[in-house]
Amino acid sequence: MPTTLWNRSFTVWLIATAQSQFGSAVAALALSFLVLHQTGSAGQMALTLACTLLPNLLMPLAGALVDRWNLKSPLVAADLIRGGLQLGVGAAALLWGEVPLLVINLVAVLTGLAGLFASPASSAAVPLLVPAPALARANALIGSVSRGAWLLGTLTGGWIVTHWSAPLAIIVDGLSFLVMAALMTLVSLPPRASAGTAGRPAGLFGEVRAGLGVMARSRVLMLAPVIALLLNAGLAPVTAALPKLFASNGGNAAGYGTFLVLESAGVMISGALVALLAGRLASRHLIAAGLGVTAAAYGVMWGCPQPAVLLPAAVVLGFGFGLINTPFQTLMQALVPQAFLGRVFSVLGMVSTVGMPVSLLLVAPLLDRVPLPFWFAVAAAAQGLGLLAWLWAIQTEGLVNTSAGQGAST
């Protein structure tokens, strides 16, 4: 096991994560405006986003496989597959001008399938990269560096889409995945607890049930996916509505990109705060504060959906997200045995993300009919319900001594 925070593998991990987030930010903005440009419909854009996320329904099975494998294998394979897919759709759009929506949605599904393995593997790998006392600081650094790279990528993506083209931005994302795959081969991960030590049952579904059994021992672990489901279900229509809202107010890709940049800046600020105060602030209080801050930010955006208000609110929104995510991530890693991390994080990821595609599919027919600011009110209500559920969980479980150093993320 590593003895210091700044070891080679963790440093390479930070660099690889940063450049991957840079490319993903460029592509996320580009894909939204590619579909919007071709169809002019926020509803169609919502369907594409749903196609990316629907494969997450299979994530628990992927998590069980991740707990069987060396963690580097699914990470490298997922990056290679996603890189090839992004390069393919970007090149096709450059060559032929437009890509059929069916092809874009198919690539979105395949990209989501590849990402099934990357998400739980990444969450399970971090505790192996640093000593246990440095885990909260490591998660905060990863979160801040990732958001910084996302911020830079969003700025770059807005500029590329505005001055060049969305397909070129998607190609940049494809290249970033290939670079991350190469960097991951330089990361050394110590062996995890063996299957025998973990009491592995026979069969893939048996292993998934074992992961659920670990979650059932803690009310916080059981309730965490429910809270995340509420939050993502509220966030989904907002994600689909914002680009069109900015366009209707005289904005463009750069204006929407600025919103995402400011949101990322807020996350970075809160991430730096969590890293600085790791071990001093109770994670349960940080998470509750983050839920309250985000609910308030969405409420303000609903009351005054103008760029002059939306942009400052983006900073507050990001700050609240940061107060939720880093402490929650570390809390999961501290509460769950290493041999079960892939399964538990995959269940958490599946339940939390299913809210987004399901919500997108349900609201897609309404996005072009209902006033766009209405979705901010929906998100505010979802955050408020999440806050009430979290307060109930921590009070009934009695996490009195849990600190940000033992932390938490949804």
From TrEMBL:
The protein, known as: MFS transporter
Q: Which GO terms describe its molecular function?
A: transmembrane transporter activity
| Species of the source | Deinococcus arenae
Task: Look up the domain of life of the source.
Answer: Bacteria
Q: Name one Pfam family in it.
A: MFS_1
Determine if Membrane is one of this entry's keywords.
yes
Q: Does the keyword Cell wall biogenesis/degradation apply?
A: no
Q: Where are the transmembrane segments?
A: 12-36, 42-63, 168-189, 220-242, 254-278, 285-303, 309-328, 340-367, 373-393
